[in-house]
Specification:
Blueprint (H helix, E strand, L loop, with lengths): L8 E5 L2 E4 H15 L5 E4 L4 H13 L3 E4 L5 H11 L3 E4 L14 E3 L18 E6 L9 E5 H15 L6 E4 L6 H14 L2 E4 L5 H10 L3 E4 L1 H10 L4 H9 L2 E4 L6 H11 L4 E6 L3 E5 L13 E2 L4 E5 L13 E6 L6 E2 L3 H6 L1 E2 L2 E10 L5 E6 L4 E4 L2 E4 H9 L4 E11 L3 E10 L6 H11 L8 E4 L13 H5 L1
Parallel strand pairs: 1-10, 3-4, 3-5, 5-6, 9-10, 9-11, 11-12, 12-13, 25-26
Antiparallel strand pairs: 1-2, 7-8, 8-18, 13-14, 14-15, 16-17, 17-20, 19-20, 20-21, 22-23, 24-25
Helix pairs in contact: 1-2, 4-5, 6-8, 7-9
InterPro entries: AMP-bd_C, AMP-bd_C_sf, AMP-binding_CS, AMP-dep_synth/lig_dom, ANL_N_sf
Protein name: Acyl-CoA synthetase
GO molecular function: medium-chain fatty acid-CoA ligase activity
């Protein structure tokens, strides 16, 4: 799956580095210790040891379960009971929670020597089991086979023109598809380098890109901080301008932030669309039109379609429908959940639960989640993201989330949750602003001002917390 033979730096965390050859020795030695185990958990701290553990498990053919170090007691208990790991791998000296005391611990060291390579498992062999966020019940273990990882990494490499000469810079968590599969396994697959910042800051990002970084991965909260600062930070602007590619994912990047970054740097951020069960589905190409508000076209080997509420495929551009996907990038099953696995598919297509539209030239746009971002008001289907982008154009709005609430007359009424930029604006001014930019039926019926928006570890707004 990885070349791992050169003396080029593979991993950099602070002042700690491993070359591809050194990583091969560390991971190879650990892989021999893991060989034959049914499954292992990995305490996925943002460290070089986490990367070694994941590569070792892949080399041993042992499915790995990355664990969020901030996981709560109840969620951890569920994951441990559901996945039944034989070991938990962790960096030496890291304290593990009480919920892992029943699982034998194995420290990940950077010692290693020359060992015989283990046989490469088949393409359908489980590689990782990544747990969903549990927004509609207990988290589900998404079983990702090796073929899904390989096909996705090769497809995005083609789309982004990713080579061994690239140095990827990011500060994403290592228990998730974005930070771990794309952000760690991606550069290793190409024979390139990862420079992990540990904790995100524009200062650290500037230094890394000025040093030798060529590509940045981030989430919208990171790009929002960049957009806020880059106009008055010439060193940050120069570093971003010199980068080959800036990629955003995990949630939609507001058009306002796109434009502010482009104005200061000349760089257009590339967006892509994926999820735990499908890895990557679509992306804007590095050499194509980097159009704000879109997630590009399907990746090589991936089929995407839009389906209406009656299950009929939408052939004409502009229609709004559920996004369904099929291809080698798909997961195998939800661990121990054949019912949920069957329910997730329709005639071989994975039902993402996301709603989108397609432009005439094939570019897709994400409208939102079917359950939380589509508001049915007054007979109209309204996308929350469109209203959010409109409100973000108002100078008094720093952040915003839009939800729907039951209404006897309208079915649902539109609610805007606004973090003011400075003094609290007049709510009616914001309502009129939306009605003017969009149409009157899309205006918020109620504006609620808040100090901050609840977000998860990937920076996504947790709208169910707002409703609560």
């Amino acid at each position: 799956m990885f070349p791992l033979s050169s003396d080029r730096v593979a991993l950099r965390f602070g002042d700690r580095t491993l070359t591809h050859a050194e990583l091969a020795k560390c991971a190879g030695t650990l892989a021999h210790q893991l060989k034959g185990l049914p499954r292992v958990a990995i305490w996925a701290t943002p460290t070089i040891e986490t990367c070694v553990a994941v590569v070792a498990a892949l080399r041993a053919g042992v499915p790995a379960v990355p664990l969020n170090p901030k996981v709560g007691e109840r969620e951890l208990a569920h994951i441990v009971a559901d996945s039944a790991p034989a070991n938990v791998l962790a960096a030496p000296g890291v304290q593990l929670p009480e919920g892992l005391q029943s699982v034998p611990r194995r420290d990940v060291t950077l010692d290693g020597g020359e060992v015989e390579p283990l046989p490469e498992p088949g393409p359908e062999a489980p590689a990782l089991i990544v747990y969903t966020s549990g927004t509609t019940g207990s988290p589900k273990g998404v079983v990702l086979p090796r073929r899904a990882i390989v096909s996705t990494l090769d497809a995005v490499a083609e789309a982004w023109e990713w080579t061994a000469q690239d140095v990827l810079v990011h500060a994403l968590p290592l228990f998730h598809v974005h930070g771990l599969i794309l952000g760690v396994l991606g550069p290793l697959r190409r024979g390139g380098s990862l420079h992990h910042l540990g904790k995100f800051s524009t200062t650290a990002l500037t230094e890394a890109l000025t040093d030798d970084g060529t590509v940045m991965f981030g989430v919208p909260t990171m790009y929002h901080r960049i957009a806020e600062e880059v106009g008055d930070a010439p060193e940050l602007s120069a570093a971003l301008r010199a980068a080959r590619l800036l990629v955003s994912g995990s949630a939609a990047l507001p058009v306002r932030d796109h434009e502010r970054i482009a104005a200061a740097t000349g760089q257009r951020v590339v967006e892509r669309y994926g999820m735990t069960e499908t890895l990557m589905n679509t992306s804007v190409r590095a050499s194509a039109d980097r159009r704000p508000g879109t997630v590009g076209v399907p990746l090589p080997g991936v089929e995407v379609r839009l389906v209406d509420d009656n299950g009929l495929e939408l052939d004409e551009p502009g229609g709004v429908g559920e996004i369904q996907v099929r291809g080698p990038n798909l997961f195998t099953e939800y661990l121990n959940r054949p019912d949920a696995t069957a329910e997730a598919f329709a005639d071989g297509w994975f039902r993402t639960g996301d709603v989108g539209t397609r432009d005439p030239d094939g570019y897709y746009r994400i409208v939102g989640r079917k359950a939380t971002d589509i508001i049915k008001s007054g007979g109209y289907k309204i996308g929350a993201g469109e209203i959010e982008n409109a409100l973000l154009e108002h100078p008094s709005v720093a952040e915003v989330a839009v939800t729907g609430e039951p209404d006897d007359d309208l079915g649902e009424r539109i609610i805007a949750w606004v973090v003011p930029a400075g003094a609290t604006p007049d709510a009616s001014d914001l309502v009129d602003h939306v009605a003017r930019l969009l149409t009157p039926h899309k205006r918020p019926r109620l504006v609620r001002f808040v100090e901050s928006l609840p977000r998860n570890d990937m920076g996504k707004v947790v709208k169910r917390a707002l409703r609560a």
